[in-house]
Structure formats: structure tokens, C-alpha cells
Amino acid sequence: MKIAVLKERADGETRVAATPETVKKFIGLGNEVALEEGAGATASITDEAFAEAGAILGDAAATVKDADIVLGVQAPEAALLAGAKPGAWVAALFDPFQQGERVEVYAKAGLEALSMEFMPRITRAQSMDVLSSQSNLAGYKAVLAAADEYGRAFPMMMTAAGTVQAARCFVMGVGVAGLQAIATAKRLGAQVSATDVRPETAEQITSLGAKAVFAEGLEAAGEGGYAAELTDEQKAKQAELVSEHIAKQDLVITTALIPGRKAPVLVTDAQIATMKPGSVIFDLAVAQGGNVEGSKPDEVVVKHGVKVMGFSNTPAHLAADASALFARNHFNFLSAFWDKEAGKPQLDEEIGDAIRLTKGGEVVNARLKG
Ligand code: NAD
């Protein structure tokens, strides 16, 4: 099999879908790995390091020519893949709900699109789950970026010149990113509290040494370990809870997402106005519509003296580690299904049907077909 990896072309994308480590492992399975020259540059991986691992480097056309499998972070334009084998697999992030047109183009091009964000939340797929690996790093980076904008320190400090108070940090949404945000803010010395709409997260919050802040009856557990949307009544209850708590916070990190929907608004302009000047809000959902009213991707918006910020692509701010984990997710995925006799991967129904968007010229995914 020929496995191809192109340089990422999306704006602001710094990651790469393979590393020298995964190149070696794929070659160990009997494959040829082709990489576009410069693909690893923004993730601090040189062409020489890839070549040493056994990859063949070339331009985009040579890289995809006759490829059986193309690996990406974000799915490349289908036009770039014209030279790949008919029916070639493309495993990457497809953003399928927002980028329906791209999915159609992939179908028409006869490619088999495998959407890594549709990986089911089952134990055996954990090591293949790019949403988890990238969210974890994003939660960490969000706290560091917020700390950098914050004009005060995180830990309490007793100095000869007097005491510096510990910062209060509130994490809203305690999935993978939120848990890492809690852990990071704790390590920096902040007093941390957190909330979610899935009740099981309360124990996870306290086990990290943070305070769980929950409104009674505010439960919205959806399918597959994800959250569901709140009813209007629940939204009002949550708003009341947030209003009470947020005025006392110095830092707020929001991470709330609902699959297939715009991110829920958790912090309104009126609530921001109750916070102290100099406070910082990092909106990790800014690229999905935003949890915070008025947040803008890649800008620090000052509202009522509060800095509201968020990155359009947070893992891209940790390109080397994010690439290393993303590349391993790809390898763990393909190698788990490797059929040694056939010399290629054979997907099973549970995972294959969940992530396959297109095949044989058609859009085939149940979630997309409604
Ligand atoms: P996510 O990114 O979809 O959402 C982030 C968090 O926001 C979630 O905890 C969600 O409950 C919360 N949220 C949604 N609406 C909210 C609201 N109105 N107010 C407050 N919080 C709100 O979630 P995620 O990080 O992908 O993780 C979801 C769950 O799936 C976690 O329990 C995680 O451990 C689990 N998970 C399992 C696997 C696996 O088994 N393979 C892999 C990854 C994650």
C-alpha cells in the first residue's frame, strides 16, 4: 500500500498527519510512505528526519500519485488527490456537518472519506480518537494563553512586599479539554471551580481538587458520552447559576460543545459586565460559534474591561505535540484493522460505518443522511 501525507493547506494549520515515528511504523507493516516536501516544517519536523525514517519526499502530485491511503489533519481539497488510486481512503478531519459540500465533492471524486471526528466513543477506539488527543492539548493551551493575557499571577504568593491573592478560575464544560484545563489551572496555583451538564463530571472535578458548581436538575446527557442541548427552562437555570458565580472569577475557560450543533452560549454580555476589569475569558468553542457572547477567533476583544479571547485552531498552537498525537491516532486506527495476509486494513462495521462518509460515489454516512 502507498500511504501519502500532504502539507496542510488550511489557514493557520501547523500540524502534520505523520511523524518520523509513525512513518517507521507504517513501513514496518509493509507500506510505502510518501510525504510532500516541507509537510512537517511548521511542526518542527525536517524533511531529513522524515527521509531518515524511510519516507519518500516529493511535490504534492508525486506524493499522491497512485496512493491507496491519504492521511491528513484537515481533509485536503479533493482536486489535490486526482492522482490517487480510484476509491482511495482519505482519513482526516472533515468537519462533516459544516462542510457538506466538501463531502459531496469527495463522493463525486470516488474517494472514500473517513472522518476521524466521527470515531465512536468506545473503549477500543480511545487510542484512535483525535478529538480527545487534540482537546486535551487545547485545554492546556487555553489556560496558558489566558494566563499570559492576565495581568496578575495565578498562585497565592507571600512576599516581603505583601501577599498576592490566588486567581479564581472557572471552567465551563468538563469534557476532555475542560478536565485538562482544570488540571493545568490547579498546577499553576489557581483556585479552580467547574461546571457541566453531565452529572457524572462532578466526581471528576472534585477528584482533580477543584470545586464542582452545579445547579439542581440541570442534566442534559446525550448519546455516546456527549451532552444534549438544554431546554429553555434549563438554560434559564444555568444562566442564574453562572451569573451568581462568574462575578467572583478572574479567569473563565469555556469548552462546551454539542455534536452537530452550534456551541451553546454560556456567558452573555451582561454577565461579562459583572466581572472585574482585567479578568480573562478564554472561549475554546469560538470556532464553533462561541460559548461567550462577542468572542472572536484569534482576537482579544475587550468588553467591560474583561479580555475575551479564543483561537480558531487551538491545537495548532502546540504543533509538535499535537502532530505527534494526531499521527499516532492515525497509526493506531489503521494498524488495529491491519489484515496481514491482505497487506491492507479491513474496517469492521462498528467503526467503519461510523466514520465512513463516502464510498462508491455516494454519501453513505447515517448521521449525514439524517
Ligand atoms: P465535548 O467537546 O463534546 O463537550 C465539552 C463539554 O461541554 C462536555 O463535557 C459537555 O457535557 C459540556 N457541555 C455541553 N453543553 C454544556 C452546557 N450548556 N453547559 C455546560 N457544559 C456543557 O465533549 P468531550 O470533551 O468530547 O467529552 C465528552 C465525554 O466523552 C467525556 O466524558 C469523555 O471522557 C468521553 N470520551 C470518551 C471517549 C472514548 O471512550 N473513546 C473518547 C473521548 C471522550
Description:
- The protein is an alpha/beta fold.
- A hairpin with a 2-residue loop joins β18 and β19.
- The two termini are 34 Å apart.
- The structure holds nicotinamide-adenine-dinucleotide (NAD).
- Nicotinamide-adenine-dinucleotide binds next to α5 and α6.
How large a portion of the residues is in β-strands, by DSSP E? 15-25%
Largest sheet: 7 strands, mixed
How would the global form be characterised?
Answer: globular
Which bin fits the share of residues in helices?
25-40%
Low-pLDDT parts are none
- What ligands does this structure carry? nicotinamide-adenine-dinucleotide
The whole-angstrom Rg is 22 Å
- SS field, number of helical segments: 12
Derived structural class = alpha/beta
Distance between the termini: 34 Å
Which strand order spans the largest sheet, edge to edge or round the barrel? 11-10-9-12-13-15-14
Average pLDDT number: 95
Number of strands: 19
Sum up the structure in keywords.
seven-stranded mixed sheet; single chain; globular; six-stranded parallel sheet; 370 residues; alpha/beta; binds nicotinamide-adenine-dinucleotide
Write the layout of secondary structure elements.
Elements: E1 2-5, H1 20-28, E2 32-36, H2 47-53, E3 56-58, H3 60-64, E4 69-74, E5 89-93, H4 100-108, E6 112-115, H5 130-149, E7 157-159, E8 162-164, E9 168-172, H6 176-187, E10 191-195, H7 201-207, E11 211-212, H8 232-246, E12 251-254, H9 269-272, E13 280-283, E14 301-303, E15 306-309, H10 319-336, E16 338-339, E17 344-345, H11 349-355, E18 358-359, E19 362-363, H12 366-369
Parallel strand pairs: 1-2, 1-4, 2-3, 4-5, 5-6, 9-10, 9-12, 10-11, 12-13, 13-15
Antiparallel strand pairs: 7-8, 14-15, 16-17, 18-19
